[in-house]
Amino acid sequence: MLILPYSILVLIVAGSVALGYAIGRLDWLVARLVSVTPRDFTPAAPVANTLRAAMKDTTGPVSGKIAIDTGKYVGEINTVGMQKTQDFTLGKTIQTQDDISSSVSKLAQLKGK
Amino acid sequence: MAKGLDVGTSFIVLAQDAAANSTTDPHVVGNVQYKDFRDAFYIIKPTTPVATKMIEKGLQGKVFVKDADGSFIILGQDAIEKAVERNDSAKRPMYRGVVSPKEKEAKRVLAFILKEVVGTASTPNEKLIFCVPAQPVDQEDDDFDVAYHEDVVRTVLAEQGYAARAINEAEALCYSELEHDDYTGIGLSWGAGMVNVCVMLNGEPTVLFSTTKSGDWIDRMTAVATNEPDSVVQAEKEHGTFVIGEQNENTILAAVSVYYERLIDYTTKQLAAALLDHKALPKFKEPILISVAGGTTRAKGFVEMFTKKLAENGFPLPVKEVRHAKDPLHAVARGCLIAAKIL
């Protein structure tokens, strides 16, 4: 006598679970049916978390090139294009009678060199 | 051999032993030889082939290079003269002591000038000391990047075969001028772009800083007041006769004199404020020597006005003497050369 109502109860519970699951995956189901990538999905592993972060990250390079601020980083300084059309030497040379040997020895002594 | 290099906003000065270039002359062996170059450029871009020929003809006898895009880059004193001729201002590859972030061509022009002035190293990895400014105390500015400037200069010098190293500009001045005071005192290098300060105790720099107003500021303010280009003001200032704090019949020189006094007043106030209660300031046993150098200090009445303003603005240390460097334009390069022989 109790078997029949118990079976019905099990069927109702199972049916509810199946319906709940179907509703839960409805966005995925709809996306599949209309061939659209789901907006998001729930990751189940650390790898999936990384993947999701990468998908959401819009700060990275878009063209595959890394932009370098040449105002902050010194690369090659190209002066090749600057051509002398006449011979000249930059700077005026001045000879002095100024001997720095005593300054050098005194400072070297102070610095223990 | 070793070399010293003052990379200044207005002048680039190379110091080396005279013997490096003339070993046959016994009178100059052991003495210092300088090479000065005015740190300025002026670009003329012709629009037609006919204009190119005309400009090239007009530049005969001037120091200039032709760039890849067909423009003419006039260098040094000739650049200033050409700018004045056109009622314009010459450009500078440097601004306030570092490579100019404002000028697009600054880095290339500075590299070209440095390569030409310094030449290639006489031996691989020849030692060269160049100077850089200290961080300013009166301005927070993202454009002021000493590390980047240092990298630019070092990269250029490395290409020429030098093992280059930087020291502070005012520290170099102290090495040049404080020998007879046991390398103890204060050095102030008044360049075009800024004033650099070093407090030294027995050869060790203890306090280093800079302020961002100097000779260029006088030119700019005078240019605004008199409605003249900066280059014209600079030329008047360098070739005219005036005394700081005294009246002048020439309108430009009268304004220059007024702004000189204001600059000295401003700098001594900054100096007093920066040193008052500074944790790294040594406790000097005796009154100290203050050495001043740089192109801005060559005006008549400078030392007298500076001494007066130090007293008026509460300078916190007893001063033995304010002394003008023997050779104010070359003192920093000289100090770099002394450092290159030791450090």
How is this structure best summarized?
Chain A is mainly alpha-helical. Chain A has helices spanning 3-24, 26-34, 46-56, 101-110, and strands at 83-84, 92-99.
Q: Characterize the largest beta sheet of chain A: strand count, sense, and whether it forms a barrel.
A: none
What structural class results from the helix and strand content of chain A? mainly alpha
Report the strand count of chain A. 2
- Estimated helix fraction of chain B: 25-40%
Count of runs of 4 or more consecutive helical residues of chain A: 4
- Biggest interface: A-B, 36 and 55 residues
Order of helix and strand elements from N to C terminus of chain A? HHHEEH
Supply the CATH architecture of the domain at 178-324 in chain B: 2-Layer Sandwich
Text of the CATH class of the domain at 178-324 in chain B: Alpha Beta
**Number of continuous helical runs of chain B:** 10
| Structural class by secondary-structure content of chain B | alpha/beta
Radius of gyration of chain B over alpha carbons?
20 Å
N-end to C-end Cα span of chain B: 13 Å
> What do we call the CATH homologous superfamily of the domain at 178-324 in chain B?
ATPase, nucleotide binding domain
Q: Overall pLDDT of chain A, averaged?
A: 71
The low-pLDDT segments of chain A are 58-62
The geometry of chain A reads as elongated
Low-confidence stretches of chain B: 23-29
Helix content of chain A: 40-55%
Q: What is the residue-averaged pLDDT of chain B?
A: 91
Proportion in β-strands of chain A: 5-15%
